[in-house]
């Protein structure tokens, strides 16, 4: 009995050992197969033929091309925007240049016209006061020079006088003339119309009405009303001429107005507004 049992135990031991050897062999075979597969994949990867590598490379290439396309679109949009801004700025610069050129020309024309009017008013003032702008030569007798007399020094030609006056001087002269033209003065005898010495006199002007006019903070205060730049007005003169204008500039001692009929500009001084030489009325800016 003992011998049979030992034999069975030995057989079971050999069987278990054989099974263990088969397991180790199978495991070794699996390792070798995996190692061979990895080596084969590595070789394909180096050659660029690995399927997984090609799949991922295709995806990366699509992303790369999409990014390039988006960059090109962005560049095109930015270029178009820059070109539009360039054209817009160029047009604005040309328009501003043309406007400044026209404004400069109008201002110079207005200044020259104002100077022309000042000279005409000055000439009229001198004619009324009896002054003359012509310099008459002084009549002198030429005597025979004696041998011992020194050589006469020739007279230098007189320099022309400067008759340009300021606006305040002109207006002061006009006020003096108006006082001299008063119809009645103390100590004077009025001549009757039947008198042979009667001289018809020009109609006398009514006393000048004074207006309150001043400039503060770039606005004109005139006749209890405020006027500002770009405001539509009527400009009335002493000869009842009514002009439709727009205030273009408010200076420190004067304003510039632009006629709506021909866009010419005029300069009006505060003194002229205060004396009533010009009267400003509001109008609707239709």
Automatic annotation (TrEMBL):
It comes from the Eukaryota. InterPro entries: Sds3. Residues 1-12 have a biased composition (Acidic residues). One of its GO terms (biological process) is regulation of gene expression. It is found in: Nucleus. Keywords: Coiled coil, Nucleus, Repressor, Transcription, Transcription regulation. Its main location: nucleus. Pfam families: Sds3. Residues 1-21, 190-209 are annotated as: Disordered. GO terms for cellular component: nucleoplasm. Residues 28-129 form a coiled coil. PANTHER family: BREAST CANCER METASTASIS-SUPPRESSOR 1. This is SDS3 homolog, SIN3A corepressor complex component. It comes from Oreochromis niloticus (Nile tilapia). The lineage of its organism: Eukaryota, Metazoa, Chordata, Craniata, Vertebrata. The gene is SUDS3.
């Amino acid at each position: 009995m003992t011998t049979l049992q030992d034999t069975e135990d030995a057989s079971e031991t050999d069987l278990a050992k054989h099974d263990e050897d088969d397991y180790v062999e199978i495991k070794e075979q699996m390792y070798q197969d995996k190692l061979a597969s990895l080596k084969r994949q590595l070789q394909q990867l180096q050659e660029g033929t690995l399927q997984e590598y090609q799949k991922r490379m295709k995806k990366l290439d699509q992303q790369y091309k999409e990014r390039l396309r988006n960059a090109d679109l962005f560049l095109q949009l930015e270029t178009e925007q820059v070109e539009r801004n360039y054209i817009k700025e160029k047009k604005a610069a040309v328009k501003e240049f043309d406007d400044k050129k026209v404004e400069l020309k109008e201002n110079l024309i207005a200044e020259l016209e104002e100077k022309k009017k000042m000279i005409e008013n000055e000439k009229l003032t001198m004619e009324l006061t009896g002054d003359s702008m012509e310099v008459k030569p002084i009549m002198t007798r030429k005597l025979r020079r004696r041998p011992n007399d020194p050589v006469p020094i020739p007279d230098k030609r007189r320099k022309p006088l400067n008759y340009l006056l300021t606006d305040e001087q002109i207006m002061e002269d006009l006020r003096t003339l108006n006082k001299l033209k008063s119809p009645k003065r103390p100590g004077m005898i009025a001549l009757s119309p039947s008198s042979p010495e009667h001289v018809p006199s020009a109609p006398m002007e009514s006393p000048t009405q004074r207006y309150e006019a001043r400039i503060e903070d770039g606005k004109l205060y005139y006749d209890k009303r405020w006027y500002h730049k770009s405001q539509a007005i009527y400009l009335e003169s002493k000869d009842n001429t009514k002009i439709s204008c727009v205030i273009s500039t408010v200076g420190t001692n004067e304003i510039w107005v632009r006629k709506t009929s021909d866009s010419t500009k005029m300069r009006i001084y505060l003194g002229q507004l205060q004396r009533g030489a010009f009267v400003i009325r509001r109008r609707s800016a239709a």
